[in-house]
Amino acid sequence: SVDIPESRKMEKEDNDIHRKLRKNEDIAEAAETDTRSLGRLFYKHLQTSPHQYLLQYRIEMAGRELRNGKTVSETAIACGFQSENTFREAFKRLIGCPPSELTRISD
């Protein structure tokens, strides 16, 4: 087994948690609360919805993956999107350019 530095190990665990928590219900269950209370907590502390928080996190993670040389298809899967098309649409909506443009910039 490869010894991963502690910060990389924590980042990987953080990514794994975010990947597993796909829906408001998943987050609410993990937080031991109901979805309505969860929504209120997110808006109070983060000024966003749980869904929007997860989407933004996945898109940020995708940017790192693309800059590190992963393909758009590999990135969509790695970041927990249902399909490559769903990923492309979300990325363009939030970032303002298609993910393929980011891969060209990093080349």
Describe this structure in words.
The structure is a single chain. This protein has 107 residues and is mainly α. It is built from seven helices and no strands. Helix 4 crosses helix 6. 74% of the residues lie in helices and 0% in strands.
Radius of gyration: 15 Å
Helix content: over 70%
**Count of alpha/pi helices:** 7
Number of strands: 0
What's the SSE pattern?
HHHHHHH
| Broad shape | elongated
Largest sheet: none
Distance between the termini: 31 Å
Average pLDDT confidence is 82
* Helix/strand structural class: mainly alpha
Content of β-strand? under 5%
Can you tell me the residue ranges where pLDDT is under 50 for at least 5 consecutive residues?
none
Task: Summarize, please.
This protein is an all-alpha fold and 107 residues long.
Features:
0% strand; 107 residues; mainly alpha; 7 helices
Layout: helices, strands, pairs:
Elements: H1 6-20, H2 24-30, H3 35-46, H4 50-67, H5 72-78, H6 84-95, H7 99-106
